[in-house]
Amino acid sequence: MAANLPSQLSPQSLGEPVYRGSVQNLYAVPDHPGYIVCETTEAGSVFDVGSIFKIEGNDINRAIFRHVMYARLAKPETWQRVEEVLLDTHTLGGTWRSQLMDGTLPAMIEGGAQTHHVGMLDAVTGEIVAQGIPKNPSCYNVVRRFPVMKPPLRNVMGNFVYDYAQFQQSGTYVVPLEYIVRFGVTSGSSVLKKYETLNEKERRAFEQELGLSDPMEAWQMLDRPIYDLTSKYEPEDRAVTKQEALIMSGLSAQLFTSTIKMSLLGAWAVRALLEEIGLQLWDLKWEFAVDGDDLFFVDTIDADSFRATGTVPVDGCNLIIHYNKQAMRDYYRIICADWYAGVNSAKVEAAKAGLAFKEMLKAGQAAGRYPHTPVVDPAFLDLQARKTALIKQHVLGEADAATIRAGLEEAGLAEAEFYRAKGKLDELLKLNAMP
After folding, report:
1. In this predicted model, what pLDDT tens digit does every residue of 10-67 receive, in sequence order?
2. In DSSP terms, which residues pair with 37 in a beta bridge?
3. Where in this chain does the record put each SAICAR synthetase/ADE2 N-terminal domain (predicted)?
């Protein structure tokens, strides 16, 4: 148990949240300002719009996955298994493998990774359980609290930029970046969309930056994972170069390199858990905090932050089924195409005006320029609830892997039939059928 933190903490004692987010709420721990309680909710958010749908049971399902995964990251044996995988993966290349295995990995093999996670609250007793699952799992996880600093928007000769100077002057904070690790490229990947807008010369440069040996294409598994970085505390995620990310982070080059290694190694740890039930991990995102020279895995790790898939046979094709938030993104793109187009238009308009995107969208909807946010079909939400419940059963060990795999495939086939009934199966196949 973390120093000075009580062994029990009743959810009823927490009072009102100090922060209400789109998918989770944060509570101060009474008399212990160095810690905070994260309450996951059933709400879901896509396209930076905020909470626009709910998946039943997703609050506790996500909290359990987070608790189990962070507990795994803290164990040296997790990193021992990652090392074995790296040594056995012959497509990595000797130089890249040796760099990845130098420094950061040996330290985690010796003592586990540092994370902000303390434990999960028992829903009945309030006991803070660090290892293993509480007798009564809850949607409350206790974490160490790190300062969050948001860069102010500045007007520079008529152009709007974000000022990251404060990160250069601080020693303890959440790094203002999201680290996206990709084992492969999906059809809905932001990195693929960017790639498709480039000319040939720009594509070659982009391939070199990402470490690709071949041209990028959809549903392509890579010889070795790549990573890219986005802003975290701007109104919407913005892709940044590694040079810009280093400056934004406020870290030394050495610590910044360590965060990149941690993101890649952590991705393999998550991949191992999902592969047990036949799911293929394509990408996921990490966040980190720094305290002096110490780095910590922080924030969430659940179906909102990774993209894992399986395949089901549909009309002679192998259809990719998403067991993560990407399924909701595809729903809005296909079933609610007018609304999705309006969201993208609002983002463009907001960027030009230097205004917050959500404010622009809300004003445009009120004025009738953009469609109002649609209500998701309950049948589709039920399918997503089935998927996350099955993944929860796996991490809790409530069913064997073969049973979970069969249940996930059944849910995937039902999702395909949902689109068929809506007359949209062809659009789904165009987006997610394997070539």
Report:
1. 888 888 999 988 889 999 998 899 999 999 999 999 988 888 999 999 999 999 999 9
2. 27, 142
3. 172-339
CB 9 within 8 A of CB 29: yes
CA distance 45 to 51: 5
Residue 63 CB neighbours (<10 A): 25
The Cα 29–Cα 268 span in angstroms is: 33
Parent domain of 157:
147-301
Nearest to 211 by CA among 238, 236, 191: 191
pLDDT tens by residue, 238-290 = 889 999 999 999 999 999 999 999 999 999 999 999 999 999 999 999 999 99
- Give the H/E segment covering residue 165: helix 165-168
Q: Which residues pair with 239 in a beta bridge?
A: 230
Q: What is the CATH number of the domain that holds 293?
A: 3.30.470.20
What six digits make up the tokens of 312? 């089901």
Tokens coding 43: 């709400």
How do beta strands 35-40 and 177-185 pair? Answer: unpaired
Whole-number Å distance between alpha carbons of 287 and 26: 17
Task: Look up residue 371 and give its DSSP letter.
Answer: P
The model's pTM: 0.88
Do 281 and 157 belong together in one domain?
yes
17 near 140, Cβ under 8 Å? no
